[in-house]
Amino acid sequence: MVSFRHHLVTIVAIFLALAIGVALGAGPLRDGATNLLAGQNEELIAERDQLQSDLAAASGSLEGRDAVVQALAAERSADLLAGRVVAVLRLPGAEADDVAAAAASLTDAGAEIVSQAAVTDAWAESDLSFRQSFAAQVAGYLTETVAADATPEYVLSAALAQVVTGGEDAELIGELLLAGDSPFVSEIPAGDAQAMIVMGPREATELIDWAPVLEGFAATMHAVGVGDGLVLPARAAGSTASTLDSSEFTVPLLPLAVAAELAGMDGNWGVAEGADAVLPPEPELNETDVPADEASEQATDEATEEAEDEETPSDEETDEG
Q1: Interaxial angle between packed helices 96-108 and 28-77, expressed in degrees from 0 to 180 and rounded to the nearest 10
Q2: pLDDT tens digits for 7-17?
């Protein structure tokens, strides 16, 4: 049995421990803890200041990079696409700012934009069997032979390219793409485009592989893909289309990419994996790259000049006369 004295000793020990704890907390331990917390706080403040400084430096570098790209693009692409007709196609997930910047850069370079249609989510979200059935129906109107194992996305993009270029049965194909409760395009694109700019998302999506879409355009017309979500899978798949990655800052260079594609100098440009070079080359578009109406006008002007030269007598003939 525990004695009363044992209880008393236990109680005294408890109060003594409390007293010692209070004394230490109000003295050496408090000062040590305070100093430790103060030191940690100073370190956190220093780290915060360094991060803010690094962020400001990075922002300044990005702004400087963007300014250089824009200045270079403005200098090299002025009137580069004068007389050229292009169409811009927006895929699901593409940034509206990228699309607007692309259209602005093309217009500034002198290009005429005949269409800015958008591909609807039906390309990615509709039932695969439905897309396969629809693609089989559309394939019958294509002027280009499509492989038996071609994906529905490839067939549909080839069909849309035929519409954009004003090819055979363009109006009928356009109506098919726009028909039904789940149309594949937002509007029927206008025809006579010489090049198609396919604007994809900045990041890849698991809903659909957009690489066959870009390849379908490239098989039918001049095509340039923009946006890493479209470009990187296309490069990995060995697409023959020209591509421009890192659209968040390279879109001002798009006219150079289009001009290179029109001149037969297709390639992959930017800073991401698979790029051939950072900047597209600056081609001199030859007569075969000039639209038919411009080529006709040039031929007429040259013929007129030759006729005038033949009719105008030389100085020697005048003197002899």
Answers
A1: 30
A2: 566 776 676 66
